[in-house]
Each structure stands twice: as C-alpha cells, then as structure tokens.
Amino acid sequence: MNEDKEELAIDLHNAYESIALGHGWNTQETCKVMFNNLPEKNQKTMIDLAEWIIKRFKAEHEKEIVLQQNNNALLIAKLSKDSEQLKARIKDLEEETKELKKGVASGICANTFRKNTGLSKGDGNIHSEDQSRSEAVKIFKELSEGER
CA 34, 35, 41: angle at the middle one, nearest 5? Predict the structure, then answer.
C-alpha cells in the first residue's frame, strides 16, 4: 500500500499544480517542482492525504461489494422460492394432465362403445352416463391389453 499511496500522492501533486495553473492560481515556488523535490513535510502531507483517499474509497468499495452480495443472495433466495413454487405447480399440472388424459380416453371409449353398440346417450338400455363410460373403459382396457 505504501507504493500505492506514494504513487497517488505524486499524481495529486501534479494534478494540483496543473489545475491551479488552469485557474490562474499561483502556487508557492517551493511547490512548483517534482514531487521528490518538495519539502519533506509537504511530501508527507500529500502521502497522508493519498492514504486517507485510498482508505475512504476502499471502505466505500467494500460497502458496495457487501451490498451487491446481499442483493445477489436475496435474488437467489427469491429464485429458489420461485423455483420451488414452479416445481410444485408443474407437478400439479402433470397430475391434472394425467387426469384429463384419462377423462379424454374414457370419453373416447364411451363414444366408441355407444357407436359400436348402437346405443346413444340417454338410451333406455343404459342406466347412466357413468355406467356407459365404465363399460367403455373396461372394453378399452381389454382392447389395450389385447394389443400387447
């Protein structure tokens, strides 16, 4: 860190002299020299200022890092929670889809049964829609097992 603060002190000295000149500020003649030729107390003051600046920006940078890490952790937690909710919803939808497929297959079987037997919905020969569907499912299963 000594090299960093000394390097920054040199940069600050050179920038100060340049900026002062741009503003028409006439600095002391003892300061219009290279950093290494400055009076020792002036050099130490600039090095201490540079160290203060480095510590200040480092502390701010560390705060920003902690803040970013916290934001990342919160985002991960939220995504994880959302992921669990999505997994549960997907599972529900898969179950629902299975049930719907069973219902569609059952409906197809019932319609096929009616068509093949010549019976229609509400026909007096079949007591109920459920009974018709039940018979159709039974036939569908028998046909499916026969295909294997």
Answer: 135
Q: Name the strand (E) or helix (H) holding 60.
A: helix 40-117
Q: For residue range 80-103, what is the model confidence (pLDDT) as tens digits?
A: 887 888 788 888 888 877 777 776
CA pair distance 52, 5, nearest whole angstrom: 9
Range of the domain at 126: 2-147
Prediction pTM value:
0.47
With residues binned 3-state (H G I as helix, E B as strand, rest as coil), the percentages for the chain, rounded to 5, are 85, 0, 15
Residues 10 and 2: their CA atoms lie apart, in Å, by 12
Number of domains observed in the structure of the chain: 1
CA 48 to CA 54: how far, in whole Å? Answer: 10
CA separation for the pair 8, 13 (Å, rounded): 9
Structure token pair of residue 134: 């039940």
Residues, the chain, total? 148
d(CA 76, CA 82): 10
What letter represents residue 1's amino acid? M
Pairwise CA distance, residues 133 & 111, whole Å = 8
